[in-house]
C-alpha cells in the first residue's frame, strides 16, 4: 500500500443558524471523514476530497466561521492502525445496514414470486428499490477508502439482487404474454 498522507480539518461555526452546522456535518459525513473530536476530523488526502472541502470551507467562511487544514505526512505507528480501524468500523456499520436492506429486497422478490404476483406494478416498485440500493452502495464505496472487508460481500449481494430482479421481470413478461416460455 502506498504511503498515506492525511488531512486534519477543524472548523468553528457560529451556533446560529444551526442549519449551517448541520449542513457542514452532513457534508463531512457524506465524504466519509472520521471525527477525532467535535468539529475536528481526519481523512486520507485525496484531490477530489480537497476540492469538496474547499467548497465547504467557503460555506463556513460565508457564515462567519473559521477552518483549519493540516496536512499530515505520517501518523504515528500507534495512531495509524487505530485511525484505519475507525474508518473501517464506520464503513462496516454502513455495509451491514446495506446488506440487511439488500436481503429484504431478495426476500420481497422471493415472496412475490411464491405468490405469483407477477405484475408491472411490482416491477416498478422493485426497480425503484433496486436503484436506491445501487445508489446507496456506490455512496458507501465512494467513502470506503481502506477497502472494508464487507465491500466484496456487499457488491456480490447487490449483483444477486440484480439477477433476482431480472428473473422476476422475465416472469412478469412471460405472465403478461410479452415473452415466450
UniProtKB/TrEMBL annotation:
<protein>
    <recommendedName>
        <fullName>ChrB N-terminal domain-containing protein</fullName>
    </recommendedName>
</protein>
<dbReference type="Pfam" id="PF20229">
    <property type="entry name" value="ChrB_N"/>
</dbReference>
<feature type="domain" description="ChrB N-terminal">
    <location>
        <begin position="21"/>
        <end position="176"/>
    </location>
</feature>
<dbReference type="InterPro" id="IPR046858">
    <property type="entry name" value="ChrB_N"/>
</dbReference>
